[in-house]
Amino acid sequence: MISYDNLDAYCSTLPATHMVVQWGGAHVWKVGDKVFAIGGWSDGDQPYVTFKVSPASYEIMKEQPGLRPAPYLASRGMKWIQACSDESLSVEDLKLYIRESHRLVALNLTKKKMGELGLDPE
């Protein structure tokens, strides 16, 4: 599993991001003002990591060991997964999904907001 330090270091490399601590001490990463990754709510030193996925990825990932539909978000019909262990995803694969979550969330920003943030709308 990824550590808070590694999660924060990685997410900070993605374009136009910032982190806030909210919701009971979770590390909440945003692009613009939209959440793309959350680290927190675990019983140990390593956070559970929550991220947005495509509908197809969601259907596959929700059944994998160490992954689950993200509490609260998935119950509202959103396609978010929470990694609770490294049984199905290596740290490198988790980073790829976090990068994709960033991209998916950024695509839902307005073109104006994307331009203000220096993001390519493609």
Keywords for this structure?
122 residues, alpha+beta, Aspartate Aminotransferase, domain 1, 6 strands, 32% helix, globular
Describe this structure in words.
There is one protein chain. The chain is α+β, with helices and mostly antiparallel strands and 122 residues long. The protein has one domain: Aspartate Aminotransferase, domain 1. Helix content is 32%, strand content 25%. It contains four helices and six strands, in the order H-E-E-E-E-H-E-E-H-H. It has helices at 4-11, 55-61, 91-107, 111-117; strands at 17-22, 26-31, 34-40, 48-52, 67-69, 80-83. The chain has a six-stranded antiparallel β-sheet with strand order 1-2-3-4-6-5. A hairpin with a 2-residue loop joins strand 2 and strand 3 (34-40). The protein is globular. The mean pLDDT is 93.
Q: What is the CA-atom radius of gyration, in angstroms? A: 14 Å
The CATH first-level class comes to: Alpha Beta
Summed over residues and divided by their number, the pLDDT gives a mean of: 93
Number of helices: 4
Strand order of the largest sheet: 1-2-3-4-6-5
Q: Any idea what the CATH architecture is?
A: Alpha-Beta Complex
Share of β-strand residues? 25-35%
